[in-house]
Structure formats: C-alpha cells, structure tokens
Amino acid sequence: SLLHDELAGDEVLVVSNREPYIHTKTAKGIEVRRPASGLVTAVEPVMRACSGTWIAHGAGTADRETVDENDRVQVPPKNPAYTLRRVWLSKEEEQGYYYGFANEGLWPLCHIAHVRPVFRSSDWEEYVKVNQRFADAVVAEANTEDPVVLVQDYHFALLPRMVREKLPKATIIMFWHIPWPNPESFGICPWREEILEGLLGNTLLGFHTPFHCKNFLETVDRYLETRIEHEASTISYGGDLTQVEPYPISIAWPEEPYPETIEESRESVRKELGLPRDHLMAIGVDRLDYTKGILERLQAVERMLELHPSMAGRFTMVQIAAPSRTSLEEYQNLEARVRQLAQRINSRFGASGIDPIMLKIEHYESDQVNRYYRAADICVVTSLHDGMNLVAKEFIASREDERGVLILSQFTGAARELHEALIINPYHVEQGADALYRALTMPEMEQRERMRSMRALVRDFNVYRWAGRMLLDAARLRRRERVTAKIH
Ligand code: G6P
C-alpha cells in the first residue's frame, strides 16, 4: 500500500536484462526457475506489489512457447500479478552486449576485483544497439506519455537518454546495482562520455551507498561539462536535471511460515549431506563469480584448520555456487581454481571421511537456500567488492531463532548497515580464519544480541521501503517539473 500511495495510479515499466522467471525445457516438460540474481530478488516482490510491465531478455529455452503474440506472459506463473514482456536477442547481440561489454567490460570496471576489463569496439556496437532495442520496447509498451520507467543496472547505461528522447515527460528512475568506481578507474573506459551522457538522461539515479554517489558525481565532474550542485546532489546537463541519491537495497521480509522448523532443517540438511547431527556448519551462497571472494573464503577455512586442528572432522563449510556467465573464460578459470583448492583442503584436513569443504556448483531454488541458511551455524560473505550483497540480509531474515553468526566483508554495501556482523577484510586470510573461529565459539547470548539488532534493521528497511523512497523522491521531482513547466 506504501507503493500504491507513491504511484497514485501511474503507469510503471521496469527494464532489466535478467528476467524474473525463466522457462526451460527439461525431460519432465517446461520448468520455471527463479534466477540467482540480487536484482531479481529485490525487484520481483516490488513488481508483485505494484503490477505494471517488466521488460527483460527472454533467455530460457522454453520462453518463446510461454508468451502470447505480443511476447507477453503473466507472472508469477502460479499467481499472476504483473506482465513480463520478453525481448529476444540474437547470438551476436547477446555475445557483444551481455557477455562482452556488460560483463567483460563494465562488470570488472566497476567492481575493481583485479580482473582487467576488456573493451572491444564490436561489443560496444552491440551494446548501443541492444540499448536502443530495449528503449524502443519501453516506448512501445508505454500507454501514457509520462510513465514511470524503472531502469535496472549496468546493462542499460544508454537507455535512459534514448527513452527521454521519445518520451520527454517520462519519469526515468535508474538503479545501479553494482558499485561505482572512482574517476581514475572509470576513466579507462573508451566510451566513458557516452555512458555518462546516457545516465544523465535519468530523472533520478540511485546507488547503494553515499560513497558510490560521491564517486559518480566526481566522475561526471571529471569527464563532462555539467553543473553540479553538491548540496542538492543534482547534475544539470544540457536541459536535463538528474538527482543522484543513495538507496540501500534490501529484501522482502518473510511473511509465510517456513515448511520446516529450524530444528528440522538442522537435522535434515545434515542428513542430506551425510554429516553427523551435531556437526558445525558454515554456509556460503553465491553466484560463482570472481567478485565474491570464494577462493579467499576457502583459504580462510584452511588457515582456521591449521590454527585449530581440533576443528577438523567437526566443521564443514558448505559452499553453494550457482554457475554464472559460464561461457566467459574468467568464470571457467575461477571454477577450476575453486575446485582445485577445495580438493587440496579436503585432502589435507578430511578427517574420518568428513570433508571440511563441500562444494555444490549448481543452482538451488530459494526454498532450498533458506533451508541451508536455517541449518547453518555461520554464514560467510567475503565479496572483494559488492554493491550491497543480499545473501547477508537473507540469512538474517531466515533466522527467527536469533542464532547464527554472519561473517561479512567490509567491501560490501551491507557492511555499512550490518555493524553487528563480524566484519572482515577478505584479502586478509588470517583475519578471516580468526573470524571463523570466533564465530564457531561465540556464546549464544552474544549471537542473539547481534542477530536481534540486525533483524530489526532488515525488517524495517525492507525492499518496499527501498522502492518506496525512490518513488517518493521521483514523485517530488515530477511535481516540481510540472510546476516549473507552468511558470515558463
Ligand atoms: C548482479 C547484477 C545483476 C545480475 C546478477 C546475476 O547481481 O547486478 O544485474 O542479474 O548479478 O547475473 P546474471 O548475469 O546472471 O544476470
């Protein structure tokens, strides 16, 4: 209802690369999956609450079979609440725009995880083309001249300006789900001016943290001729005004009861994994991505076992790693290195047939992930750099028993909010090892105190608040625009 008040009957269009429901052909028929994506985790509940149309790339092998003649399908499949409009990309478009410019260029550029960005002119051309195709889809789907367009992430840096050209009265809100780097780092991008100009087509541009906003303002200041009002956090460029604000993203607080109690999950998960009933367990849940610090995490486990040999055979780190962007070499290399390291640690410390590392390189649906969160003693997030990281918040939300310890990288947006986590520098293996041991031996009272205050924060600052605040700010800008239009 919060969202309905903000929207007051406005038309809402969301654009993202990743779709919230992927239909795939399997031996059992057509299956629907929710992809592993922080973006989808956050935006999907918001869309359910405000209906509208979500435009995204149709990536599933059965996607074409589930849409109508306008490429639309009502979702969620079991309980339709909004429209998903799919855009089809050719192999070359997907290669150049998604794998190439977005994920070999912008992704490492913005994360600074010491993987060198790759910039190819041919990728850039596809990126421009695909941005235009999605912008055209937005214009085609719009039924009014002033819709609220919610643009998601680094796949669409150029789209805001493209939409602005066709729908000058639209309120265009963009959220950048990944970090924004400092001006020097961003400056190596051969198309830095074009990207910044594209982004300044937005009415409102959101980042996770004030730090990312500051980096963005400084980047614009360095490379474009604009007028920046630092106090108001606005940028004027040409005739356009863009407001830049931090909106820390979050999750929907769980409302439905879980199918299993925490006790039941503790037992059934250990049984499933072949672990003893009282076994100590840490959980990691990530896409298999080099920004997530999975190698560093395993190294910390190894070091902890060196320092505390009595933990061998009593403790296991379960790492769920959803395969991601697997046609890119960096991701294939990472998988090989993660497997190797896990094997090495297991051969060193695998006592009485129990491995200290259990790698699950596969996709788990969210109810399975929840069971693992609830079964664990510790959740480990060691991103080398991460816009927010919603795994940390999901873990907290799942623990109504107020037990369990969160170990959290200081390089996540989440670390700016979740001060009661054990905050570590993932590059510092020794510190990671100490945090693991401290978590394993933390008194119940202390766990409870930390968990309780983190739960209160995540419950209050949920994803509806995230969206609500953006829409509220946008509504204010919209009114201002209408008023100034009358004056002139
Ligand atoms: C990050 C990005 C999202 C993306 C997700 C999964 O969270 O910010 O935009 O959807 O990773 O990556 P993928 O390439 O599979 O969509």
Report on the structure:
- With 488 residues, the chain is α/β, with parallel strands linked by helices.
- The chain is built from 17 helices and 18 strands.
- The protein starts with a helix and ends with a helix.
- The model has no long low-confidence stretch (mean pLDDT 96).
- Bound molecules: 6-O-phosphono-alpha-D-glucopyranose.
- The site of 6-O-phosphono-alpha-D-glucopyranose has 11 residues, from helix 2.
- 6-O-phosphono-alpha-D-glucopyranose is lined by residues 18, 35, 37-39, 153, 177-178, 287, 324-325.
Question: What is this entry, summarized?
Answer:
This protein has 488 residues and is of the alpha/beta class. The protein is built from 17 helices and 18 strands. It starts with a helix and ends with a helix.
Number of strands: 18
- The share of residues in extended strands comes to 15-25%
Radius of gyration using CA atoms only: 23 Å
Q: Helical element count?
A: 17
Distance between the first and last residues' Cα? 35 Å
| Mean pLDDT rating | 96
| Distinct small molecules | 6-O-phosphono-alpha-D-glucopyranose
Largest sheet: 10 strands, mixed
Helix content: 40-55%
Report strand order across the widest sheet: 5-6-4-1-7-8-9-12-11-10
The general outline is globular
Instruction: Provide the structure class.
Output: alpha/beta
Low-confidence stretches: none
What does the secondary structure layout of this molecule look like, with pairings?
Layout: H1 2-7, E1 12-15, E2 22-26, E3 29-33, H2 38-50, E4 53-57, H3 63-66, E5 72-75, E6 82-87, H4 91-111, H5 121-141, E7 148-152, H6 159-166, E8 171-175, H7 183-186, H8 192-199, E9 204-207, H9 210-223, E10 227-229, E11 234-237, E12 240-246, H10 262-273, E13 280-287, H11 294-307, E14 315-322, H12 329-349, E15 357-360, H13 366-375, E16 378-381, H14 390-398, E17 405-409, E18 422-424, H15 429-440, H16 444-460, H17 463-487
Parallel strand pairs: 1-4, 1-7, 4-6, 7-8, 8-9, 9-12, 13-14, 13-16, 14-15, 16-17, 17-18
Antiparallel strand pairs: 2-3, 5-6, 10-11, 11-12
Helix pairs in contact: 4-5, 5-6, 10-13, 11-12, 11-15
Bound molecules: 6-O-phosphono-alpha-D-glucopyranose.
The site of 6-O-phosphono-alpha-D-glucopyranose (G6P) has 11 residues, from helix 2.
